[in-house]
């Protein structure tokens, strides 16, 4: 096989849903050695549905033959007319997707199944590969043909071209080539392989369901199917499960734990434990620190549902103010729907959230939220509270200002639409029409994890600081020779931490 180097790619288009929040790419689940593997995977994916609502799929292995079904939409819609009995086998991997790399098409839905001369293979991936586009160009120049625009397919081609004796060796060679954030699951005829990136940017844990071994993006999925949490997969670790049991292959190179902080701030379910920290406990502590460091003269605390409720409770406990359900979320509104006309520009947010007039009328409200991306939804929520009679709205954010693009699996790969990238805190306050606004600092945020400023932070805070754990390049400014080597200097974006 021709030698490939390690070029890196640049940014993907920015896409924002109505909620004006950063969007996670997806969630993965795998099980090896269970007689109802598809059923277990299906219910585990329900627990991970918050991580992706654009597509879903399951692949199983039964006596060396692969069965798979995937489609666009929510999990229950994808499998509405497909019984799980159509997916026999004792091993399975599943996926729920939000697309940050590649369009939302059926070809990009996962797990992606492949037929190789060694037998069937399916791949599921959570994260984003910063050099996927560059690798794709090189592979195409060497004869590879792609069926999708997903960066996950790039890894499958790298595996196929590695030419080593075993699947494990081919997987290790492929993941050596890629850069970025990833939690991979690979399912073949006789083994399940899990791999986490060397920085642990994306979460991945493992557990036991009787004699079966399971993997999941979040521990809440294990709880849902009755599995017992065993441990988190370590950064750079590869875990192989086959008929002989479980084998762990530690990282072959240097690792530096840099878990995405936004998993605890916003993405993960409150009942999940990630890398040793419970999500609800961290969010509650974020709220406590927010109240301690950034108090407001107010009468009531209101959290933006659902991800900010824990932080609002912490703020209320620390400040001594009552916490109330001043905003009610309509859980039956889909994540995407037809945008309203300009005459009804506030209808979208009112479909999703309603202010409770009897709770906020005449009150000075502390509105606790986890982040501000563009600021448009924050402004509309502030208006909702004012229209319901709030005397004042003091906005408190349980994270630092979101100023920099993410390249590792969050859908903010350009800073152009991040309000904090171009506005000061006072200017953002004016834009969202709040009476006051305050964010946590990075140091204050790290206190919620029990860390001091002098401690090494085991987190990626690049979206707040601009210091990325890996190099991030613009592929358009590279010129690759046929052997994959850049013939001119690569352009680096950001500062490596």
Supply the number of structural domains.
2
Coarse morphology: globular
- Name of the level-1 CATH class of the largest domain: Alpha Beta
Q: Give the quaternary arrangement of the chains.
A: single chain
Supply Rg: 23 Å
Q: At the fourth CATH level, what is the homologous superfamily of the largest domain?
A: Aminohydrolase, N-terminal nucleophile (Ntn) domain
Task: Return residue spans where pLDDT drops below 50 for at least 5 consecutive residues.
Answer: 1-18, 335-343, 474-497
How much of the polypeptide forms β-strand, as a percent range?
25-35%
Largest sheet: 7 strands, antiparallel
Briefly note the structural class of the backbone: alpha+beta
Structure explained in plain terms:
- With 497 residues, this protein is an alpha+beta fold.
- It has two domains: 26-257, Aminohydrolase, N-terminal nucleophile (Ntn) domain (Glutamine Phosphoribosylpyrophosphate, subunit 1, domain 1, 4-Layer Sandwich), CATH 3.60.20; 283-330 and 339-447, Rossmann fold (3-Layer(aba) Sandwich), CATH 3.40.50.2020.
- The protein is built from 16 helices and 28 strands.
- The strands form eight sheets. The chain has a seven-stranded antiparallel β-sheet with strand order 3-2-4-1-10-9-11. A six-stranded antiparallel β-sheet has the order 5-6-7-8-12-13, with helices on one face.
- A hairpin with a 2-residue loop joins β2 (55-62) and β3 (65-72).
- The model is unreliable at 1-18, 335-343 and 474-497 (pLDDT under 50).
